[in-house]
Structures are given as structure tokens and as C-alpha cells.
Amino acid sequence: MDKLTFLSNADSSYIDGLYQSYKADPNSVDFGWQKFFEGFDFGQTSEGGSVESVEGVSDHALKEINVLNMIHGYRDRGHLFTQTNPVRERRKYYPGKELETFGLSEADMDTVFNAGVEVGLGPAKLRDIRQLIEDTYCSSIGAEFKYIRNPEKIKWLQDHMEADRNQPHYDVDQKKRIFRKLNRAVIFESFLGTKFLGQKRFSLEGAESLIPALDSVIEKGASLGIQEFMIGMAHRGRLNVLANIMGKPYKTIFSEFEGKMYAEEDPELQFGGDVKYHLGYSSDVTTEDGKSIHLSLAPNPSHLETVDPIVEGITRSKIDMKYNGDSSKIAPILIHGDAAIAGQGIVYEVTQMSKLEGYRTGGTIHIVINNQVGFTTNYKDARSGTYCTDVAKISSSPVFHVNGDDAEAVVYAINLAVEYRQKYKTDVYIDLLCYRRYGHNEADEPKFTQPLLYKAIEKHPNPKDVYAKKLVDEKSIDQEYAKSVEKEFKDYLQEQLDIAKKTDKLDDEIPMFGGAWKGLHAAKKADIYEEVDTKVPAKEFLKLANEITTLPKDKKFFRKISKLFEDRAAMVKNDNYDWAMGELMAYATLLDEGKRVRISGQDVQRGTFSHRHAVLTLEDSEEKYIPLANVNGGERFNIYNSLLSEYAVLGFEYGYALANPQALTVWEAQFGDFYNGAQIIVDQYLSSAETKWKRSNGLVMMLPHGMEGQGPEHSSGRIERFLELCANDNMIITNCTTPANYFHLLRRQLVRDFRKPLIVFTPKSLLRHPKVVSKLDNFTKENFHEVIDDTYAKPTTVKRVLFCSGKIYYDLLEKQQADKRTDVAIVRIEQLYPAPVDQLKAIRARYKKATEFIWVQEENENMGAWPYYCRIFNRTDLEFTEHISRSESGSPATGYMKKHAVQQEAIINKSFE
Quick one: which of 120, 576, 595, 887 has the most CB atoms within 10 Å? Predict the structure, then answer.
């Protein structure tokens, strides 16, 4: 025929793309394709690129194109027609995979097509070609990968899956190992259900194939060079993972069910504990070929997916600290629920971090326990996407949808996943299609909302029984073997339970202060108030100050940057250091002492208020120059502008600090107000992890704070919220007023032999205030001051003492100096928590004639430090006689500059009336 209209219902842009490559360079396609394309040209194409006509092509040649189109269609859409759901019929998708969809028919089944070269068969019958792609893409594993924008990755996946037909090939020993792991998973859950009737355990029942999958990841990963896995997961199946993968003793888990408590190391530390399915664990396991693998399971709260950035941060910290930047030695594994991965925004944020320089970890293995129900919500009401894993497309990560009843397929898919991760250093997803045997917990009735589903589940055999039948049928094992394996493990569990019943107290099997934390300890009250020597010798200080203010002469910098650094050099010469220099010198001195400094957040390299300029961009290129990166040989200073996220980034940095207490890890909010986008991290980790999980952390949060007429969203870091979370010396809350005090505060974080989260309410307008400066002696002869007393007022004549914190001090100082009020003293509380009680008592004693002790703040009455100080000092010797503030409000600040100025003036005037 001279011209044929191409009527295939499927998209043939794939073929067209191959042909275009062939026309540009015949050698760019496989030899089989070269032969196929010889002798004819494609005609007109549609706007989308699909073939509409072919010049001089026979009927057979046209069908060759249709066969190729069918192969492409299976690769692209075969996952929609798999046998992956163990308890439900799959939804129908159109067009389907019928021969007619691709312009073929039964009459063509025994015709030999050269298109077989595409799947490695060479010229082959359509029947054989179709069977191969049917086995590969439409059986127990469905693969989504065609959206990946890298032809090499696509080919790698196609070659591996099509060579195996996406079918596992295991010997009898391997099958027995899978069976034993599956047996342990199933029997462990049934044992708990029998012995601890009615207790919550959030069982893995229905998804037990997760256990042989994780076991295989460890074995396969070890063979590929992985030495450590960092795992994060929610409560569903956690006890099973702890016992059967992590190696947490069964007797310990049973003791927790029995209500036994961990032995109290010291009552002063006030360990509160947490439910057993939130606890973390770490262990070393040995693979079959003798390799030692370290496993860590991060503790986590009930807030689903919150642990994700924590795990990524811990992993990155270990990559930097332990593995010299080699991400192939450690891999994060995140285990999700289907409703959570689809519904929680933190998943999207963490996914967007995965390839960014400051946050990448070499690829994460994501496993979704897809039990098709979120608490009581049907999956159709839980997402708009086709799959719960559609977030994977953001990072062009492949997804394997696997039938949880097919244990071998699960193991095969996850082995392929870890191999892909190691080769390409990107994320990969396993969607484990399974079910939940019970409701949200064991006491919940799922039939209230899912009656039909749970009728099917009740009749459905567990994955162990399904696999046992398969092995018996194929004569890999016999019934006696299956029964003996089951009995042996049940007897062992009973022995462990008998031991647990005789146990009085549990020993802490996860010491906090080992490994990277060796040499540190849990802080007691006396430690908190002990003065720490953070001074730096003047000679060393000046050497570093000159070093970080000198720009290389062979690089061309923006004129304003050059001027800025000239001004900084002048500060050193004139002994007058501003806020930015105080901060940068803290980093420089820590780096000089061999510590690591890591800072991230939105626009932190320059600083929201253009004060930091830690990273300089050359004027005529994109080249970067980082003065601090050259201190002490470099490589220990990292500062990253983050993606526009608070939640994930703060979680990441918390994880980073958790793994490396010898690094000063800093997260800075663009404005203090924005930290509340990460409130969950503050509530569930920062403020409470030490009490819940005995996990210390030295993360620094910098929150720009201050009332400056900038409106409700650029004024308050919510001092009141942090203070209401404070108890048992769990955090340090500060609001510094001098560069030197800030310098000492940051250094103190690493000089101390314990770690506490540090919340710093940092200034905005004070960054360039002429009075906010420090002298060399303040850095080299002093330490951190929790309280700074007045040096102008005369103690013998003072009748009123104003206590304040932060920026308002300079407004009060201006008034005091202008009016020469030596009878009014202004005292700055630099550390709001732990409250410096003894120092405040000493200051009150100093002003013997004073009758008014007034708290002054620029925040509203129901905000700032006042609600906390009012409460803790109520009916004590430190009780304030009055407070001065803005009136209470539901909004942190006014958006009108004139109104702001009137309010501020009223506070200052009232303070001196």
C-alpha cells in the first residue's frame, strides 16, 4: 500500500521516538531495530508524536509496529492489570490489554514477528512475545517506571524484569528461609493475640510478608556493600519488626506487655516512657555469608510519617560523619501505611528533599504496608491518585506493586529495589498489597465500616499458610516440615514468656551514651546551671577574625559584598563586633577546634535580613566562595539554603543532630513565626524525646523575633509556646541582646558534656543597631551570661527594677539614658529557661530600696515570657509587682506601623512613669 492509516488505540510515540533516533544515528538503536527500520519512512505524525501513516509498508510490517506498540503498552500500563490484590477485585481500566487494543487478533498469535528482539526473544511468535510481557508486567508484580526521564534507568529495569519475567527463581534453601521468616511473623502475632488478649499491638497480620522482605533486604544489601540500615516506621507491625528483624528479645517485649517498667537510673532524670510500639532499637545482625550489619529503628510518635525526615537526617549525618560521604554504605528504609503516604504532606516534603545537595542520602527504600484501609476510611476516600505511591513520580522513582500473599514475589521485588538503589542512588518504592486482619487495633470492629471487605478477609488464609501450600504442592517441603517449624517457634516463645513473667524490672538495652555519644551524659539540674568556659584566647580569636573577613584578591565580588567585608575587617581593627560577626566567630572557633557546623533553612546562606553572607556568589559567574569553609582545612562547615519547608527540614536537622552530637546543627526559620509549620517536630521530638525515649539532642533553632511593625506574621517566634513546653530542664530558651553573649551561647552547645535543644529568639532590627556591639574582651574574657544587670543605675537609689528580654531592652535603654533615670534599673534575662533563679535573687538583693519589680515585654499579655514567669514566680520571693505589655490579643501583632509605634511608645513611657 502507498499509505496506511495507523489506527492503534495505544500511543505509538515510543516507536516514533525510536525511529527518530534511528534516523539521526542508525547505531543509536539495537541491531534488530536497525534492520526493522530499513527501507521505509514514517509519514505524518500527530501533534502528540504518534504515527498516523506509514509510506510503503506491508500489512505484516504494520503489524510489527503494532506488536512493538503492545510491548510498549504492557511496559507502560501493565501494572493496571496485575494480580496484586489478595482480597479484592481490582478496578477496571480502559483501554485494556486485549489484542484488539493494539490492532492485533487471535489470528496473529502464531505469526513470527521480528519485534521479539525488543524483549530479548529475537524473531518470535506473537504468542510467546505476549506471554513474556504478560508474565513480566501483569502477574504478582506490577511495575511503574516509564515516567522516569532517564533511558538508561528504564532499560536497566526492563532488562532485569524481562530477563526474569519478573518471576523469582529460588532454590529450596532460599525458599525455606523465606518460609521460616514468614512463620515467625505469623506465629509471633497469633501468640501475642492469645497470651495478651485485648491488648493493643497494632499487628502485622495480613502483611506478614514484610518480615521476609526486610530479611532479604539486609542479605541483599550486605552483598552490595551496605553496612547499615536506618529504619523508620509507624506502629503497624512495629513489634514484629523489632522482634523478628531487629532482634529485640522476645522476653523484653513480653515483659512490656506484662506492664514491667524499665529500671530507673536516676529519679532526677524523670524518665516518663512511651508505649511499646513507639520505641526505637538498634542491633547488629550477621548475614548468611558472615557480614555484620548494623540496624537502627528510630523511635517515633503516633503522628504518622513524622519519623521520615528524622530517619533521613540521621542517615545523612552518618554519611558525613561515619562513612566519609559514601552513601552506598548506609541506606534508609521508610515503612509507610497506604493512607499515610497518600495523605500526609510531610511525605511530599521529604520526597522533594531526596535529590537536594544538602539532604540527599543516596536513595531511600520505601515500603508501603498497603492494607487498603486508613483507620476506618476506604482507600477510595483516602486519595485522588490511582495509587497511594503516586508521590514517587515526583522524584522519578520506580514503584513495584506486589501481592503480599506471594512471598517470593515480595522478596524478588525488594531485592530488585535495593539493587536499583545502590546503582542509581535514588528512591525506590515497594507497594505491598495486603490487608489488615483486624480493625485499627485489636479491639476495633472493622465491620462497622468495611463489612464486605472483612467478610472476605475472615475467609482468607494467612500468608504463611498460602506459602506453605505452594511449597508443599511443588514438593519443596512437606507438611511435617511446616508443622515442626511452627511448633519449634511456639515452644520458644512460651519459654521467653515464662522468663518474662519472672522479671521484675527491665534493663535499658539501648544505652544513649555509646557510639557517637560516648563521653556525654544525661544532664542533672546541677549541670544545667554550672558555668561553662567558652572563652577563646585573644590571639586565636583575632587570627580567625582576620581570616574570615579577608576575601581572595583573584576573585571578583559584587561591590556591596566587598564593602561589607571591608566593614567587617574594620570591626576587627576597631574592636567593635556586630551581631553577624559574633555569630560567624562562634562558628569559626568551633571549626578551629575540630567540630562540625551544619546550618540549614530558608535563605540561610545570605540570611533573611542580609546579615550573614556566609556564602558569596561571584559577580560574573555562579561560583561560590565560603570563607568559613576554609577554616582548619575546611570540609567541616556546611550551610544549605533549604527547600521551602519547615516541617521536613526541621525534622531532618533534628535527626542529623541526634546522630552526631559533636556537630553544631542549626535550623533557622526565615521568620520566627514560620516555625509553627513544624510544630509536630517541636512537640513530639524536640521537647519530649528525652522524657519519652531517653534521647538527648543538641539541635539549635534560630527564630527571628521582635515587634517592629511588620505585621502579625513577621513578629513573633511564639516564646510562650516554647515556655509552656518546658519542664525538667528539657530545653534551653534564650533571647540574647549582645553579639558576644550569642557567641558564647552557641559555643556552649558543644563545650558542655551534655546536649539540650537550644531555642534562640534572634533579632532583626538589632542586627545593625549601633549599640548592639561587643568588644574583644567580651569574647575572650567572659562566658555566657544568663542575666545581664544594669551598669548605669545606682543600686542605692533604685526604686524600680525593670526585667525584660530581647529587643525591648534597647528601647528602654534609650529612654533611661535620655531622661538620665539612675533610679530605674533595667535587667536583661538572656536565658528565659531554665530560669536563672539564683541570679535573679541576687539581683533583687542588690536593689535593697526598690519596691517595684516589673516585668516589661513588647509582646501581648497572653504571649511572650510573661504567662510563664507569672506562673512560676507566683507567690514566691521573685514574684513581680506588676507587668507592662501590649494588651492580650488573638493576633501576635498589628499590621499598621502607626498603631505599632503608639503601642511601643506606651509600653516605654509606662515603664518610666
Answer: 595
Rounded to 5°, the CA angle 353-356-360 comes to: 75
What 3-state DSSP class applies to 556?
Answer: coil
Q: Which one-letter DSSP state was computed for residue 334?
A: E
Q: Report the alpha-carbon distance of residue 524 to residue 728 in Å, rounded.
A: 9
673-677, long-range: CB within 8 Å, 24+ apart, which pairs? 673/712, 673/713, 673/714, 673/715, 673/716, 673/717, 673/718, 673/892, 674/602, 674/646, 674/713, 675/646, 675/650, 675/701, 675/703, 675/717, 675/718, 676/646, 676/718, 676/721, 677/645, 677/646, 677/647
Strand 141-144 with 112-113, pairing: unpaired
Q: Which amino acid is at 210?
A: L
Residue 8 has pLDDT above 60, yes or no: no
- Name the residue type at position 38: E
pLDDT tens figures, 421-479: 999 999 999 999 999 888 777 777 887 888 888 888 889 999 999 999 999 999 999 99
**484, HSE (Cβ side, Cα atoms, 13 Å):** 6
CA angle, residues 488, 492, 493, in degrees to nearest 5? 120
| Residue 552 DSSP label | P
List Cα–Cα distances, 197 to 30, 194, 201, 241, 438, in angstroms.
62, 6, 10, 20, 13
140 in Cβ contact with 83 (< 8 Å): yes
Cα 147 from Cα 145, distance rounded (Å): 5
Q: Give the other-Cβ count within 10 Å of 866's Cβ.
A: 22
Q: For cell 504468542, what's the residue?
A: 127
**Angstrom distances, CA of residue 610 to CA of 638, 668, 730, 764:** 18, 14, 32, 10
Around Cβ 563, how many Cβ atoms within 10 Å?
11
Q: Which pLDDT does position 444 carry in this prediction? A: 76
User: How many angstroms separate the CA atoms of 802 and 911, rounded?
Assistant: 7
Would you say the pTM of this structure is higher than 0.90?
yes
CB 294 within 8 A of CB 228: yes
Cis status, amide bond into 95, omega within 30 of 0:
yes
**CA–CA separation, 557 and 561 (whole Å):** 6
Contacts of 401 (CB under 8 A, 6+ apart): 79, 82, 84, 141, 142, 143, 144, 387, 389, 431, 433
Q: Residue 591 in 3-state DSSP?
A: helix
Separation of alpha carbons 23 and 42, rounded Å: 10
Residue 492 has pLDDT above 60, yes or no: yes
Whole-number pLDDT of residue 4: 32
Would you call 625 helix, strand, or coil by DSSP? Answer: strand
Ramachandran region, residue 419 (left: φ > 0; alpha: ψ -120 to 50; beta: rest): alpha
Q: Which of 734, 754, 866, 721 is nearest to 525 (CA)?
A: 754
> What pLDDT does residue 100 have?
94
pLDDT tens digits for 320-346? 999 999 999 999 999 999 999 999 999
Residue 621: Cβ within 10 Å count: 9
Interatomic CA distance for residues 178 and 163, integer angstroms: 23
**Separation CA 858–CA 731 (nearest Å):** 23
